[in-house]
Specification:
Structural class: alpha+beta
Number of strands: 6
CATH topology: Alpha-Beta Plaits
Strand content: 25-35%
Radius of gyration: 18 Å
Distance between the termini: 34 Å
Shape: elongated
Strand order of the largest sheet: 4-5-3-6
Number of domains: 1
CATH superfamily: Transposase IS200-like
Largest sheet: 4 strands, antiparallel
């Protein structure tokens, strides 16, 4: 089985490490972890441009390893994950969420996030390869 994906005339392997945290770093995820992971899988099922390879929650943040196609913008992935999970968590666990976020707005995540691509080779290897092409 190839480590690369194929689509029409493209061969690719694009993976992102994504982290985002709860609004105000509230430590509220542990008791609702199963519902949250289920919600993230629901967000994944609503499209066909990316998939979650691995995800893990902590008390106030969540980590993902996501495989994406070349036509998918990372910001769209993050937007979808945050939007669907916020809706689902308030829908399913509204009374619990009100203990942490008591305004009328349904908060869960901060606006910011961390994202990094991961690759098969080091930055030094790629730089050396590029420099030797001339």
């Amino acid at each position: 089985m190839s480590r690369y994906n194929t689509l029409n005339h493209e061969k690719y392997r694009i993976q992102y490490h994504i982290i985002f945290s709860t609004k105000y770093r509230k430590k509220c995820l542990e008791p609702v972890k199963d519902d949250l992971l289920e919600s993230m899988k629901r967000a994944e099922s609503l499209q066909n441009k990316w998939n979650i390879e691995t995800m893990e929650t902590d008390k106030d943040h969540i980590h993902f390893l996501i495989n994406a196609s070349p036509v998918c913008m990372p910001a769209d992935i993050i937007h979808s994950l945050k939007q669907v999970s916020t809706y689902d968590m308030w829908e399913k666990n509204g009374d619990y969420m009100k203990k942490y976020y008591w305004s009328r707005k349904h908060y869960l995540w901060t606006r910011g996030y961390f994202i990094s691509t991961i690759g098969d080779v080091s930055e030094k290897t790629v730089k050396n390869y590029i420099e030797r092409q001339g």
